[in-house]
Amino acid sequence: MSYTAEAFQNEYLALGATEVNAIVTVTSSGAEGGRRTAGATEIIIVDASGSMQAEGRIGAARQAAKAAVACIDDGVHFAIIAGVGTAQQLFPAPGQLAVSSPQTRSEASWAIDRLQASGGTAMGAWLLLAAQLLAQRPGDISHAILLTDGDNGERQGYLESVLDSIAGRFTVDSRGVGTNWKVSELRKIADAMLGTVDIVAQPADLTASFEQMMTNAMGKTSADVQLKIWTPVNSTVRFVKQVEPQVADLTGKRVPDGPRAGRYPLGAWGRESRDYHICVDVAPGNAGDEMLAARVSVVEGDTVHAQSLVRAVWTDDTALSTRINRQVAHYTGQAELAEAIQAGIEARKAGDDRTATLKFGRAAQLAHASGNTATEELLASVVEIEDAATGTVRLRRKVAAADEMALDTRSTKTVRVGRGQ
Amino acid sequence: MTECASCADERAAGAAFCESCGRSLAAGPACPHCGAAGAVGEDGYCEQCGMLAARPRDHLEADAGDIAAAVTDRGLRHHRNEDSMWLAVRGGDVDVVVCDGVSSSFDPDVASATAAGAAGEALAAAGETLTACGGKTVAADKTPAAGSTPAAEAPAAGEALAADVGAAILAAKEAVAALADDGDPRRAVSNPACTIVAAVVRGPQIAYGWIGDSRAYWVPLDGPAEQLTEDDSWATHVIALGVDPEVAMRDPKAHAITGWLGADAGSVQPRGASFTVTEPGHLVLCSDGLWNYLTDPAAFAAAVRTGLHTHGTLINAARYLTDYAINAGGADNITVALIPVRPAPSEE
């Protein structure tokens, strides 16, 4: 795989300034011929709780799981977990992984047809079983799909403790079908497991969603890519956020690596490009001083794939120090957009209409200004946007639960600079 | 454990010096900012404090003994040196160029380096033609072609030299203009730009030319300095219209230049002239980082003479003038070139 890392920043700081910001774009050309450098293992977790009988969800889930199985490449290990009050392995035999082939895939399909909806929801237990199965294949590109339609029924804090113990070992993409599940619960899983979260309001759309997730997973060719950030003495990394294709805060995932350096997990990579916002607090310099504020490397094990320098140059030339870097400004806005939407939703739920209106207004303004039309449209289903430019909005009296959940789950979706403008 | 490269003794990891032979175990030079031994990495930044150890352009010197000397320095306030210089000496012949990058343009440091290089190379090519015409490449040392020219032919030779300088400035203009389409797309938005002053000395003959506000002075043995160039600047423009020079120079727009090299420079043409010296003195080329602290011609001449008399060599005098500007505030990059010029022996 060949990677590039490119930093975008205004390196000029006013005298006394100590905050250095940069957007680092990491691009991978993918492995040669799209081949994986390691093996791959896929786990499909389908909620089989009693509520899945409603609206024909279980039937749609069976269809979707079969479609996902059909997308698994030959040679990839896989297993299917039926999610009830405990985790039950549906395919292959308990504790085993199947090797994908036309025969095992059709055997899996027959097994899926036997899936019945009856029981509870225990996401912690489901993920723990997935982790145990995946542990058989260390070094593989490990990925799981989790589908649920309701709240987690486990005791308070159990899911969090499971996530703490398995975080970073594999990637989990979560989908909620219907509107009786909690966005905050699935977001917790996505954040810990470096995956995505989304709503599938109509059961009929599950198949497309599963196919898209599995196809995307099959495109990953490297298992465990990391961002290594070196900073000088007396400097600290204030935050590291993925800002494109969606916002994800990586700051808390730092693992120390030698003096003044730390690694942040980026998960599995295929042929793709992602942007990261890095903010470093440094000691102030004198006019003319140039400091290396951060050396950012894309690493896999001991291999350094690409490197980019984040610099700080102090100047008393305000024409230089006040220049606004387009990328940094844009993604700062996109991160604020996600925060404003989530704060707006919280406030609306709490009955604080004034705060909700303010937050949604700011969100509408940011979405409009940055050309994030997808988010602007989602916002419009929750508020009436009177004037996006000034952020004038009115809360809608009636909001469909699915619309609000879609806005919530997709609030972290960002667009690149200039796109859609 | 790591072994000392000099005596193969083992030492505790992290030690700065070998316990056995005392040699520094540092791989690279010590950091000038935090003093950490051997901390400067391959990319020039300190592995401890992150500071850039040094940029080569921060302070450069060209020392041609008693023929010429030049110094360029970042000064105190700018984050990099956007001035550039060229000093070439062939025997007693001297080609000299000083360029000052326009800070508001993108990559002005590249503009000035490109301009100084292009003009310098053009002058070198013209100078070689001149020497070749004399037929004595080696003897050019002692009898430069221009120096041995009969007095009657001097104006014509001077004009030819001035034409060489003009052509060199136009070559620089072309090279700088081409930068806008080269490399970083931001160059196209705010194209690299710079000033230029160039001069050639052939025996007692001096030819010079300029665009912008970098200056050439003639500093005689006594009396005030004679400013040979006339700034392409807002201040010069309004002074010509009758505004008091002191007032004009204090205006924030004083240094706004009205002529420069760059893709957006338009049809600006270099101005220039030539003359033959009749008494000894010094040709001084400098950027505004120096002359801004010595706007009075008498003070300018006094500073040059102090440098020459108290510091002996030309290079020390050039350093003295640079330090003078730094001690006065060092608000801009400073470049100064000093070339002593004597009248032709035949004119005594």
TrEMBL record, chain A:
<dbReference type="InterPro" id="IPR002035">
    <property type="entry name" value="VWF_A"/>
</dbReference>
<protein>
    <submittedName>
        <fullName>VWA domain-containing protein</fullName>
    </submittedName>
</protein>
<feature type="domain" description="VWFA">
    <location>
        <begin position="41"/>
        <end position="218"/>
    </location>
</feature>
<dbReference type="Pfam" id="PF13768">
    <property type="entry name" value="VWA_3"/>
</dbReference>
<dbReference type="InterPro" id="IPR041176">
    <property type="entry name" value="VWA_3_C"/>
</dbReference>
<dbReference type="InterPro" id="IPR036465">
    <property type="entry name" value="vWFA_dom_sf"/>
</dbReference>
<dbReference type="Pfam" id="PF18571">
    <property type="entry name" value="VWA_3_C"/>
</dbReference>
<dbReference type="InterPro" id="IPR051266">
    <property type="entry name" value="CLCR"/>
</dbReference>
